[in-house]
Design a protein that fits this description.
The structure is a homodimer.
Chain A lengths: L2 E8 L5 H13 L4 E6 L3 H14 L4 E4 L3 H10 L3 E11 H9 L4 E5 L6 H6 L2 E4 L7 H12 L14 E3 L8 E3 L2
Parallel strand pairs in A: 1-2, 1-5, 2-3, 4-5, 4-6
Antiparallel strand pairs in A: 7-8
Chain lengths: ~180, ~180
């Protein structure tokens, strides 16, 4: 079940940390890649890809100039387009239908989402109808889609791995 | 079940958006308040409180200088202290025990978490052992704690309310 995430309208500087969090959450909770549109940010891409490289698993961060091209390309590859927005239908009411789709492009907004995104999406989905965070919405969506199984996901080829502790920190280097 | 969130080590400027997201996620997913430590940020507090005021529900954002005082105070009030950290025990393995606790102070870190936090916490919990985001970790923790019921939460006294749509946006003013 390949899940790709499309993060719209990245802005240099202002969005650096939120966009990084979107990428890391996508990876940690089972997506295969994140595609950023907006301003091209080489440091952002390197930072997310470098984390993926150290912590394992097949994940990559990419840049595309035009979100419409991304949607068109993924639709051709038989991906369903899921747009996360506080204005959409409650995730808890539609997640069963979406779980049947095997390939999903999850779109998360930046500050201004073009109205066309709402039209292009197969599903406009709300993680609560309250204002909060695209980072949290993405996390809850992936968690619901994978039914919590993503929490136990193994990351192949990891150079670093955490050994869970009740107290303190333990990181293991993996050869 | 009152849940309070303690966000450690806020830094003016650099953390503004992530800390705002933490506050909004806390509110949207069922916590009662967020307490920020670190640098005092009046704009952050006003922004989160203003959102709570417009969108309803009993929620407030506060500032405290010293995290230890907060922990001490909440412990006296019979709160369990849950620290979210990638180094902790997997959330999916301990959430049943935590759901039995009725009052919880959820601690989420900033850049540098003092080692003492790991000692003071009753539970150090990981939402995956992967690097990602305190915003996402908080969201998944609350979602797991409330078993998804928080997604249907009503917010009393809201001035604004969204009417879910398959396409487009609809916000209703509430008298």
């Amino acid at each position: 079940m390949p899940i790709s995430v499309l993060r719209l309208g990245h802005r240099l500087g202002r969005d650096a940390r939120i966009s990084t969090h979107c990428g890391l959450v996508a990876r940690a909770l089972g997506a295969r890649e994140i595609i950023y549109t907006g301003e091209r940010d080489q440091i952002l891409l390197e930072s997310v890809n470098e984390t993926a490289n150290r912590w394992g698993g097949p994940f990559s961060a990419k840049y595309e100039e035009n979100w419409k091209h991304v949607v068109k390309k993924y639709r051709k590859r038989n991906f369903s387009i899921v747009h996360l927005t506080m204005y959409g239908m409650p995730v808890q009411k539609v997640i069963r239908r979406i779980r049947k789709k095997k390939n999903i492009l999850v779109i998360i907004g930046g500050e201004k989402v073009p109205p066309q995104v709402y039209q292009e999406a197969d599903f406009n989905i709300a993680v609560t109808g309250q204002p909060h965070s695209e980072v949290a919405a993405l996390a809850i969506f992936l968690h619901e889609y994978f039914r919590g199984k993503e929490l136990g996901k193994k990351f192949r080829g990891a150079k670093l791995k955490i050994k869970p502790q009740s107290r303190g920190k333990k990181v293991e280097g993996v050869d």
